[in-house]
């Protein structure tokens, strides 16, 4: 592997500069105004695949945003790793809270990142992490050191729930056939406690519309006598969580897979510090489901979160209206065994049931996804653990995290393989928030660790089949 | 008075065209981006005062938007009527619900307005009604028929609670000294049941900000463990009204002046039809304080209304965040004897008390105003009733309405005179809403009735002082 690391050392600055160029493209999938930027970004990713030495690079069209594909097939008898990532990003708003233009990356040192961090939307989630793979592969291919076959699949709709990827994979099973999927779209517990994400929560995401009158009304002339959609929506939202932090939707917990005491103990080996957690986000106090600690609440328990709310007059000054409509975006994080479609149905039924008869309720359901678990006996997990321990020279722990990558469980269903979540971000990276950033140390560490994964995975696979 | 009505008949079309020009100016006081339009509108009103034959017309500067003043002093021994109105308008949003540009007036026939109605922001509230006065005065002055002294005060901040008018009047008491104030900024019960507004509700208007973490958070990584400001705000809002429709702020009802049985009976003479009311706004059911009917809930009872709410992601698609902050605009309509400053204080205290300790609550209070009542023995009321009955040839009833014109009670305090609320709008005019309009019949009827008010008021005043 010496050649590989020599190549990486020589090309260090170029790797970084190429990433900065990609970060300048506002490939926001949630806003259709950015569809041209999506195409531009897919092209840029494709160019970088070619640069990395991948073969059969193509931009595959879907009913939504295109998927970038590339591969390097060495030999039929070698294991095949499918690398998954996404080139789309979250909307950057609220823009006024960014210290730089979110699409004009700058490098700034921080306490956590004395070597500097790249501040830009998508730097950690997920362009920076996708780029680690492209550069790890480049260093393996250009030095003729790649020990496995590799396929690369970078999509452009992860931040909106991957609505088209499932069908695309189903229709191209052979193209994506592999032994394991490798994904870097998660974070480490910390630089001192490297982790591999072995659990992800699932997701349901819905938009609720409450309509009262057929138009906005003067609150002086109608106030006190007509249903106010904002008030009714607030009341409905308030009722969705009880005083013990439990979600009140009937049937919501029915399918929840409770963790065994052993697994719960193992999870709690993570040196999670509530004070540090609180201080890192400037919050006065924590809150959540009774009977669980913060680590558990954010990883192994399902939750209901209000992601947005709007209605009525929201401009400067005072406008005395009762709006015709009020809206909320509500999502639920799910744990293993909860079915997102079923939960969406329960949510919709419950909302219609609790709404007073003088308003109309409309609920739109966005694409969801199931939760995911990777067992610690899986070779993919073992290879990743060994690679991390080699790269960090520190014991690496399994880690369950609260985020969702809905496509992971879908890929498992269709391709019948597990995914290894080898992420290099930190929870302080402010992904989905203003001032998202990604440590330069993390970026290079990822490029260093990934080749070991290929090496150990190929070895372990071989040992297993021979053993 | 024949000369007056001949003049009106001849100049009918010009009156209307002059109004249409004024309606083209987006004089939105709630949005500081429109401050140039405010100045433009003040100038246009001033030009129209000169055209009407008023003397000493001036644009008086204040700490906010200017006030237009004009007068016609005939003789010291005649009574003086102060006409109050406003040239500022509500913001037109949501713009997409307008059938025409709100500042490009069009005339369209409707079921209620077979003679046509003017569709434009400000057509009914209050430019159209201010214009009736200008044109009534023009027809009286140009035919040398004005029976009283007249002063005209048209302000530009009514829609934001008249923050500067109070001081301006206090500093210019002599200028505004008068026997009665005449205001057209209210509506009739219907064209078949003409009314004079004898009661207005007061107003408190506040903006609430709830802050949790110091930045927006990824709902997957933090959901379930940190306070969500939208959820907390919703819960706080939900708790402000109980299951009987009572406002839960301690002390809120303490100063409420309950109506006597006699006054309540008189109010209920109005042939109010709940079905018509419901159908007019396309609503499935009514709601409000237990023990009161809809007419009472919207006129003699205090209310709490959520006028706007916002927080988190409100764009297209799905963004999985827990926002740092959530906001609401909340107003309360007050009845006689409730003090808006006191009620604002109670509201702020209560909100801070019910907020959980892990969030920060900030409340901003906008300008409010007290409720108002005009007794039926007042000469101003009697003259107005006689003028209405002459103009409509129908019995005219006293009417209490739920809107607020905070400056009315302030003017009473400073100038020690009562206001007569002689409005010609209809509750279907959609003021403060998309597609605001004002009937052409109503516009001309106002111009016809106002001269009778001057005539009867002067006569009754004279009879009283001689009697």
TrEMBL record, chains A, B:
The keyword Protein transport does not apply. One of its GO terms (molecular function) is peptidase activity. Keywords: Hydrolase, Metal-binding, Protease. Residues 198-357 form the Peptidase M20 dimerisation domain. GO terms for biological process: proteolysis. It comes from the Bacteria. Pfam families: M20_dimer, Peptidase_M20. PANTHER family: BETA-ALA-HIS DIPEPTIDASE, SUCCINYL-DIAMINOPIMELATE DESUCCINYLASE. This is Dipeptidase. It comes from Apibacter muscae.
């Amino acid at each position: 592997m010496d050649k590989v690391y020599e190549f990486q050392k020589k090309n260090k600055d170029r790797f970084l500069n190429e990433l900065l160029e990609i970060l300048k493209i506002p490939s926001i999938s949630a806003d259709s105004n950015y569809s041209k930027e999506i195409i531009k970004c897919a092209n840029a990713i494709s160019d970088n695949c070619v640069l990395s030495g991948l073969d059969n690079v193509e931009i595959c069209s879907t009913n939504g945003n295109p998927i970038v594909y590339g591969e390097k097939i060495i030999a039929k008898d070698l294991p095949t790793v499918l690398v998954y990532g996404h080139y789309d990003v979250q909307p950057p708003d609220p823009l006024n809270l960014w210290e730089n233009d979110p699409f004009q990356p700058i490098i700034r040192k921080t306490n956590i990142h004395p070597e500097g961090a790249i501040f830009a939307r998508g730097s950690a989630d997920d362009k920076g992490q996708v780029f680690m793979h492209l550069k790890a592969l480049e260093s393996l291919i250009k030095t003729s050191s790649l020990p496995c076959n590799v396929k690369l699949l970078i999509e452009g709709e992860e931040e909106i729930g991957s609505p088209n990827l499932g069908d695309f994979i189903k229709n191209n099973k052979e193209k994506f056939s592999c032994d394991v999927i490798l994904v870097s779209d998660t974070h480490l517990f910390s630089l001192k406690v490297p982790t591999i994400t072995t659990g992800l929560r699932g997701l349901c995401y819905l938009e609720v519309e409450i309509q009262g009158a057929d138009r906005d009304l003067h609150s002086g002339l109608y106030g006190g006598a007509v249903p106010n959609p904002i008030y009714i929506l607030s009341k409905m939202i308030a009722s969705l969580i009880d005083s013990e932090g439990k979600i009140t939707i009937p049937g919501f917990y029915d399918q929840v897979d409770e963790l065994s005491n052993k697994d719960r103990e193992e999870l709690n080996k993570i040196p999670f510090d509530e004070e540090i957690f609180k201080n890192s986000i400037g919050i006065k106090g924590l809150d959540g489901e009774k009977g669980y600690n913060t680590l558990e609440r954010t990883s192994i328990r399902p939750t209901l979160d209000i992601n947005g709310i709007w209605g009525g007059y929201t401009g400067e000054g005072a406008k005395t209206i009762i709006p015709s409509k009020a809206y909320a975006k509500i999502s639920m994080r799910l744990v293993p065994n909860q079915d997102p479609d079923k939960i969406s149905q329960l949510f919709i039924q419950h909302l219609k049931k609790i709404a007073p008869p003088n308003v109309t309720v409309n609920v739109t359901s966005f694409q969801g996804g199931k939760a995911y678990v990777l067992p610690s006996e899986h070779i993919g997990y073992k290879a990743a653990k060994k690679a991390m321990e080699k790269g960090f020279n520190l014991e690496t722990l399994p880690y369950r995290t609260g985020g969702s990558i809905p496509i992971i469980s879908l890929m498992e269903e269709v391709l019948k393989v597990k995914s290894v979540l080898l992420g290099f971000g930190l929870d302080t990276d402010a992904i989905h928030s203003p001032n998202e950033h990604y440590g330069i140390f993390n970026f290079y560490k990822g490029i260093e660790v990934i080749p070991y994964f290929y090496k150990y995975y190929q070895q372990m696979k071989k040992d297993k089949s021979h053993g």
